[in-house]
Each structure stands twice: as C-alpha cells, then as structure tokens.
Hints:
The protein is α/β, with parallel strands linked by helices. 40% of the residues lie in helices and 12% in strands.
Amino acid sequence: xxxxxxxxxxxxxxxxxxxxxxxxxxxxxxxxxxxxxxxxxxxxxxxxxxxxxxxxxxxxxxxxxxxxxxxxxxxxxxxxxxxxxxxxxxxxxxxxxxxxxxxxxxxxxxxxxxxxxxxxxxxxxxxxxxxxxxxxxxxxxxxxxxxxxxxxxxxxxxxxxxxxxxxxxxxxxxxxxxxxxxxxxxxxxxxxxxxxxxxxxxxxxxxxxxxxxxxxxxxxxxxxxxxxxxxxxxxxxxxxxxxxxxxxxxxxxxxxxxxxxxxxxxxxxxxxxxxxxxxxxxxxxxxxxxxxxxxxxxxxxxxxxxxxxxxxxxxxxxxxxxxxxxxxxxxxxxxxxxxxxxxxxxxxxxxxxxxxxxxxxxxxxxxxxxxxxxxxxxxxxxxxxxxxxxxxxxxxxxxxxxxxxxxxxxxxxxxxxxxxxxxxxxxxxxxxxxxxxxxxxxxxxxxxxxxxxxxxxxxxxxxxxxxxxxxxxxx
Length: 475
C-alpha cells in the first residue's frame, strides 16, 4: 500500500491491516516519519521526533508478527504523545524552557499502557507552556492549524490536534484540564475525549490543576477514541485516585444507535448572543440528525453555566500558580511573558475569591446532575466560534468586556465539564462557509463514556464531516 494511503487510515484500520499483513509496522512508521519530515517544519506539531526509537520498535513488532505472538489492540499503530507525559529516556519539555533538559527515567502510565497495547511512539507533541494556554512565543514554534495556517489549532494540546488533522500520526494523546483536548479537537476537525475524572491514571503527567487534569485520547474517528480509552483506562497503583470500576470494551456497543436516547440542548449556551451564527446553525442541524435517528430531543437549563469560565479560571489558575510556586520564585525568566503574568496574577487571588469559586463549582455540579436526571446526553458546541487567527489571540485586551468575551466566555463550554468531573467528547459537527471545522460537544453522567461513544458514533456515521481532509494535509 502507498505511504500516502497508509497515513490517511484510522488507528483501528491500521492495526487490522498490519495484523492482516497488508503492510508492515515498518511501512507504517516510515510513512509517518517521512510525512513529518516533509510537512512539520510549517506546522510545528512536534517538539521531539523519535526516528530511531520508532524504527527500532517497528522492527521488533515485525519479529513479533513473524513469531505469531499475541498482538495488542494497537499493534504497530504509530502514535504521538503530548509533551506533558513522561517518556523514559526521551525529552519531556512541558512546552517550557524550564524543562528543556528534563529526561524522565520512566514512562507515564498512559505511555506504558499504549506501548503494552502495541502502539509505536513517533514522538512528543507541541503544547502551550506548562499546559496552560495563552503562550505568546512557544519555545518550539507556534503550532499552525492545517485548515488555515494563520489560525490557532487550539490550546493547550495544540500539537495533538495538528498532528491528527495533518495525518502526522494515527492517534494521539492530549491532556484536558479545562478543554485543552476538546478545544484543539474542535478547531482541527478531529475527535477529543475528556474522560470522567479518575478514569485514567495521571502518573507521569505534569499537573496543572490536580482535581481537573485528565489524559485526553485524540483520534481521527470515534471508534479509535473508544479503542484508545479502553487501552489507557483503569486503576493504577501509582495513582491512588484512579477508579477501581471495571473498564468495559468501549467499542462493543458503538453501533447500538440512539433510538430512545434522551438528548438535551443546554439552553443557556445555545441562547448566547456571542455564539457565531454558523456554529449555532450547525448545532441545530446536529439535533435534527439525532432526532431523525430516533433520539428524544429536549431543552435543559443549567443556570450557572455562563459563569463556568470565570469559576474555572478562579480555581485552575490559582491551583496552577501554587503548583508552580518554585518556578515563579527561582526561574521566572525562563517563562513566556504571558505565562509568567498569568501565574503571577493567579498567585495574588484572595482566599475569599477562591473559596467562592469552590462553592460555585459544587452548585454547578449539582445543576449538571439535575439536568442529567432528565436526559442521557447534553449537547452544545465545543467552542462558540471557529478557530481564531493567531493575531487575534495575541491582541491587547481593550476593556473588561473584551476580557470576558475572549478569556472567560469560551471556557464556559468546556470548563464546565472539568469543574463537574464529568465526561465529554468533541466530534466534527460541521463546517463554516469558509471551511473551518465546528466541534459538537456531547456530555454525560460519570463513567457513562459508553453512552457518549454510542451517540458520537451514530452522529459520525450519519454525517460526512469526519471524512473531510484539511487543505494542508492534502499536500
């Protein structure tokens, strides 16, 4: 099979083709490495490309295939990891010069489980500094969106979204504290999941906010995402907060459809006057797709959700400043100016403000759970607008309303699920008239990822959005 066809395949299909000996693990790895070498200088998706390690792993996979060894679900699949996860013997920068020489001596649990499942590590992906978002001058380049190189691919798992949209890996892992996985998935036209808090181990993942950080499988298809979560989920003795709940086969129930499923549109987000009109239209068309497939559509109210962005920043930034106190005191000159300013500001948040935000978080979760007593799935855009241009993100704030709109407003869409410890997935939900992806976000009850995947897969199979190829990726 030609290299240009191999790189366009899903992770699921890649594993199946390798096991069927349609092409070899070496064929797959070489196809992706050649493509990275050819395209990534203009995209900055990768910080570190593991050429030798990936080729060595592919050769070992070929030997295993020849021996007839038992093969894992990701056998031979070339994957890439956000550079926030430890990788033994491989640079792990966290997107910051503070960690420019940090080489862990062991893998994070997520990386270890991917390798055990047969995945082959292509490299480490670019991200916003310290996984925060808002970095103005990333040390390893500004990631570019393959749909429009002048636009952002989203933050902070920027490289994870770019690498998928440009077909520079078969699957990736991002990280989602307040939307850092789902946002890039939406802007890049791919799939991104925030699992239920405690579903996936965080051992070896550099923290931002300990009770909201979550490993985020990011993939080309919903089926791939279900497969990836099944590989990395489950209790880990190295992370005492991981759940002991059994991990189901998330791919087994994908095709059950949405007949009789109760789907709820979040009223407060949909009625926002700040939402891009084409995004609003796409969400309304999405509801029609669910209705045509037999779902029961209704509207639900979560009164506090418009304030979720402010609540999130009040908690997460303050926690992040505390976690990075030593950096702020001893190495502030190594931080990007925007990162340093954000952390220093968060360090000054009064205890009273933090306490109010924590109380509001509890009330928000209560309102979410009440809504989820009425419906099985919650629906909203992942972002209220398509990917902005890089220049718009770095523009100076003009006034308080500009801060509210640019800094707090969009975070309400994704940050609400982080605050409430609930699972949510972003899938391709349409395109604007100028060919920019629109993300459809689905949320569910704790540990209801099977329901999320079932609804997401039904929508994906009924629509063409996931089949589109970004203009830059067509090169």
